[in-house]
Structure formats: C-alpha cells, structure tokens
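Exercise 7. Given the encoded structure of a 316-residue chain, write a plausible sequence.
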C-alpha cells in the first residue's frame, strides 16, 4: 500500500516509518521543514514539504494533491492539530477512496475536547474522574488551588499551567477555552491501546513514566500489567467507539487510575510498545483495512530506557 505519513519530525515518526517500510509499504513523508532538516526523510520512499496545518484550506489542498500524485491509499497523520484539520475535511478524502487512519468523527469530537471527555465519564462508576471546571462556564470552587489549567483542546502540554498558590492562579491567563482541574498526587501512566471496532478485539500496553520531558514524552518507563487497568482501558475504548491505536493518560494513586487524556494518535513513546513485543503500528493500519490486529501477548514487567544516538548527515 502507498501510505502518506505527516509530521515526520515528530517523536513517533521513525518507528512508524520503519515499521511501515518493513511491512512492504511505499511510504511518503511530509513535514513543514525541508527534507534536509530530517533524518526521517531518508527513511521514506518520497518526501514533500508541507504548508502549516493552521492554514487549513492550503494544507488540505496540499494533502489531496500529494495523495493524487503518489496514488496514496492511506493517510496517517501523527499530530493532534493535523488530525483536527483533516477531520474537518474527511469527506474530501473519503470521496477519493483515501483511507483516513484516524478515529471516527464522533470519537474525535469527544477526545479532542477535554471538558466533553470529562463530562462523558463524570458519572461513570468505572472511571475515576478528576474534578474539572470550565473557565467562564462553571462556578470554580474558591479552594481550587492547587490546580492545573489547560486549553480545552490542548496538546503536548502546550499552554498548561500548574498553580500551587492563589497568586500563581491569579496570574494565569485564562479564558473560556480553558479547563481547571484539581491537582491530585500520583504517578503518570501512559497506555498504548489498539481496538478493532468491527470485532471488538483490543489490547493495551501500560507504562509508568519514570522520567519524562517537559512536553510529556517518556524517557524511562516501567512496563507493567494490571488487570484492573486493562478492564478500565477496554471500557473507555468501547464507550468511545475507538477504532485503531490511541494513547490514554492516567494519574495513579491509592484511589485508582484517574483519566487525564485520550490522544487520538500514536504516543511519543510508541517505540516502548514495539520494544516489548507488540506492534501497535501494524495493528492500527489493520484496523482501518479490515484485517485483524496482532494477537494478545503476555507482558513481562520491565524497565525500558530511551536514549538518543547522535547522528550526522551531510547534504550538498
């Protein structure tokens, strides 16, 4: 198959490209920066420099033209913003028989709105919820501090504020596009989760993030298994009607796993799941092409550390 992968400079891109190439696909990559700025471009069969996704109409036209030129079968975006923009124009791609390897429209409407995500599970006894308030809409408790303030449709911790004092909270620039959540103690748990909506088959790989970057990408993680978390993740996936691979984030403490986010894309640490033996990437493609996901495997608790090897490439 011919697959167009966007944002090849993102954290998950190298794993995605190499897995797709290994499976015999023709991979076309694109990014807002030139090919010479990305080692990943050398791993693609072809590369195109893309306009900014914020310029919605120009970006969609670029994708459609590239798909036509390269006879693309599947469009696989790797960032939230691109998924948002593509989702708005999904009919244009579907009409040209281009498969969009993203969640369905209804699921995206919920997971890309943190307040809606909270609201749909707020009365769900199986899903512990963090008290969440929308700025300018709900009456925010006087004792809300310490709290976390973040954009309604935020991504990768952009625009996120952690307020530990009333003074910090008062200085936070908030508007109706923000939600406020109580800050609860605990460890960050990220779960790579894939679900075939046709068969209902699913599988997840949880990891506790021991070290992470400021924008939330895990560097050192502990892979583990917890039947309670498995059931919780499966319940969330079924209720949202997820098809394909997404990643969920939780805060874990003595009171359970509190849902923070459901991101409609591969996690920055998708390589951790690949390393421990489960191919989320191929399974994701299979969900969108009528094939079965990889069978469930046993997970052995382990620590995985991500390191970066310095590589230099010359262009003349």
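Solution.
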């Amino acid at each position: 198959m011919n697959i167009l992968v966007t944002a090849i400079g993102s954290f998950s891109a190298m794993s995605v490209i190499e897995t797709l190439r290994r499976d015999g696909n023709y991979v076309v990559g694109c990014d807002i920066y030139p090919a010479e700025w990305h080692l990943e471009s050398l791993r693609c069969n072809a590369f195109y420099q893309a306009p900014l996704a914020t310029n919605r109409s120009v970006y969609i036209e670029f994708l459609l033209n590239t798909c036509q030129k390269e006879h693309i079968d599947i469009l696989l975006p790797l960032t939230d913003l691109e998924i948002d923009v593509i989702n708005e124009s999904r009919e244009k791609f579907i009409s040209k028989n281009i498969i969009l390897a993203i969640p369905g429209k209804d699921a995206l409407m919920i997971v890309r709105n943190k307040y809606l995500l909270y609201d749909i599970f707020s009365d769900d006894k199986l899903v512990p919820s963090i008290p969440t308030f929308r700025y300018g809409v709900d009456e925010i408790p006087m004792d809300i501090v310490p709290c976390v303030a973040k954009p309604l449709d935020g991504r990768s911790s952009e625009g996120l504020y952690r307020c530990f004092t009333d003074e910090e909270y008062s200085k936070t620039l908030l508007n109706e596009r923000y939600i406020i959540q109580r800050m609860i103690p605990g460890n960050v748990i990220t779960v790579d989760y894939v679900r075939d909506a046709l068969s209902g088959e699913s599988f997840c790989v949880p990891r506790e993030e021991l070290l992470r970057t400021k924008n939330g990408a895990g560097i050192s993680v502990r892979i583990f298994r917890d039947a309670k978390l498995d059931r919780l993740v499966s319940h969330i996936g079924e209720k949202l009607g997820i098809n394909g691979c997404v990643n969920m984030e939780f805060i874990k403490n003595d009171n359970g796993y509190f849902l923070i986010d459901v991101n409609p894309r591969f996690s920055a640490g998708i390589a951790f799941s690949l390393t421990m033996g489960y191919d989320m990437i191929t399974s994701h493609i299979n969900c969108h092409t009528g094939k079965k996901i990889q069978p469930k495997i046993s997970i052995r608790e382990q620590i995985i550390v991500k390191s970066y090897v310095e590589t230099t490439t010359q262009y003349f």
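Remark. The chain is about 30% helix and 25% strand. Students should compare their own answers with the one above.
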